[in-house]
Each structure stands twice: as structure tokens, then as C-alpha cells.
Amino acid sequence: MMDQLSPSPVKAEDAAPARAPKADPVPPAAKPMVETETTASPGWRTRLLMFGLPAILIAAGGWYWLTSGGSVSTDNAYVQMDKVSIAAEVGGRITDVAVKDGQMVAAGQLLFRIDGEPYALSVAQANAAIDAAKVDVGNLSASFAATGVDIKSAEEGLAFAQSNFARQAALMDKGFTTKAAYDASKHSVELARAQLAAAKADATEARAKLATGGTGINPQVEAAKVQRAQAEVNLGRTEVRAPSAGRIAQSDRLLIGQMMVAGLPAVTIVDTGHPWVEANFKETDLANMRVGQRAEISFDAYPGLKVRGHVLTIGAGTGSEFSVLPAQNATGNWVKVTQRVPVRIAFDETPSRDMIAGLSADVRVFTAAR
Q: Is 64 helix (H, G, I), strand (E, B) or coil?
């Protein structure tokens, strides 16, 4: 049994690992071909990376070095537009609203209307005052005519009294009259003279009341006409119209039935047709900046949009100088802060996108000579 289970002896040839077949020797003619491929010169892409890229970097650095200092820029800039606050010149209840927020309006277009009935009544009252003044003028004319009659009557009474006094004086000299009759005739003369003076005074007063002062119109009538003109102006002001073209803003205060107070701003018109940019440059950037220099404007709201412009004005004072509470550095305990000067940049072309007041902008002004 043990003889049967014992393994059979393994031959040395069988135990040795199998060897790979021997490769054929390389032909002598193939060796120079391999050496030629490994020693080939670099291709055009390699040469471009080796020499072109450094040349581009050198050129870009030179361009930046040459152009640095030829411009100044700031991102502290904002689009500005003229804004007109519209307020009613008369008070009253709003009866009609003709615009809404964001609407474009033309000059003279109706914005809103105030109840005009009280002002129409004022016009009617002024017309009645004119008629009353004309009636007064007619009465004064009649009174002046009556004073003429009174003067004539007083003159006749004075003439009669003087004639009677002359007779009494002649009789008194001859002793044919009494002292009492003489004194009575003398008193009648004095009374007649006083009546004539009063009549003339009344005539002068009536003439003064009828005086026109060179205008040809009685002052009372003229005053009544002025009142009517003012009432008509107030009636016309109940219709509030746009003084200029633009876009409506802040119209939420216009509500039908709301009481409008005279002089209180009710709506704003933004002149979108004439925008500009107010750029706040550092004071250290103004050394070479001049009015008329070319500028380039870009906007945060419209990436990729660039608009040509130029420097229109350079501010007369820094922003802090015109603030409500200017900084006071008289104590000597202060830190020097670079000030900002507002510079107005005008557009040289119409932007392809709508401008909105208050948009953030970046402005670059080219200060180098071109």
C-alpha cells in the first residue's frame, strides 16, 4: 500500500522552469533607423512654446510698462440724471391720475388733476366783484355830475346874497334900513360862500374817486380784474402737467381722493434723455486730468458694454466740503484721508442699453497725450 501511495520520482528536466523562446537577433540594418528617430529635432509646436510664449509675455509687460500712468480709473462712479420733483401749486382733492410709475411722458402731458370746483367759484366771485366795481364807478360818475349842479346853485346863491348885501349896505349908508337887516344880508353872503366851497370840495372828491391813474381803467375795476385773473390762474393750476419729457417715478403718492397740499412733491420726472456719470476720483489722480480728455465707461449692470465719453467738468470742491456736516480738523488730532473730487463725465454716444439713475459704473480717463 505504501508503495502504491508514494509519489513517483520527478525528473530534473521536468522540474526546471520553462524558458522563454530566444528572440531572434536584431538585424544590423534596423539599428541605425532606431537611433535616427530618437535624435530627431523638436517640432514647430515645441519651438512655438519655447520662444513664442516668452516673446508674448515680454511684449505684454512692455506694453503695460509703457502705458502705465497714461490713465486713471475709479469704480466710485454712478449714472446721474436730471430729476424734477413735481408739486401742485394749489391744494385740493385729487380727482384724476393720468400716469403711472415708469411711464414715459412728453412735455405738457397731464399728470393729475385736482378738484377745480372751488376755484371755479372763485372765478365767478371775481366776475361779480368786477360788476360791483363798475356799478360803483357809475354811481361816482352820477355823483360827480350832481356836484356840478350843486356848484352852479351855490354860485347863484352867492351872487344873490352879494347883491342883497350891496343894497342893504347902500340903504344903511342913507339910514333907510336897520342894523339887523344889514347883518342878515352880510351873513347870507358868508353862508353862500361856504355852500359854494362845500360843493366844490364834493366835486373834487368825486373827481378823485373817478381818477384812472393814467391807465384809463378805474382802480376798483382794475383790482377786481386782477382778482379774477388770479382765480383763473388757480383754476388752471388744478391740472398739473409735465414741465419736461422723462420717465415717471415715485407716483405711488398719487391716489384719487387724497388731499394734495400745495408745494408738497407728489411725483418725480427723470430726464432719461440726457444722462451723465459722476465719478469720484481721488485727489491724487487729478494731476494730469483736464476737461475734454477722453474717457471710457463700463457698467456693473451691463457686462461687456463700454461707452465713450469725455471729461465735462471737474468739481469745484471735494465731496466732504459740500456735505451737511463738513469734517472739522482744527484740533490737530486727525488722520489724513485722501479726498474725493466729483468729475462729471459726458456721454459721446448713445448707450445701447437703457440708462437708470444711480447705476454703478467704472470710469477710465485717458490722461496721456495722444
A: helix
In the predicted model, is pLDDT for residue 7 greater than 50?
no
* Under 8 Å between Cβ of 285 and 74: yes
Does 123 have pLDDT greater than 50? yes
The helix (run of H) or strand (run of E) holding residue 14 is helix 12-15
Q: Where are the domains of the chain?
A: 72-82+272-324+335-366, 88-115+240-264, 118-234
Contact present, 107 and 242 (Cβ < 8 Å) = yes
Q: Are strands 259-260 and 92-97 parallel, antiparallel or unpaired?
A: antiparallel
Statement: residue 92 has pLDDT above 90: yes
Check if the beta carbon of residue 74 is closer than 8 Å to that of residue 319: no
Residue 16 pLDDT > 70, yes or no?
Answer: no
| pLDDT tens per residue across span 332-350 | 666 778 889 999 999 999 9
- What CATH architecture does domain 88-115+240-264 belong to? Beta Barrel (2.40)
**3-class secondary structure, 343:** strand
| Amino acid 17: pLDDT | 45
Average pLDDT of the chain to the nearest whole number: 81
**What's the CATH class of domain 72-82+272-324+335-366?**
mainly beta
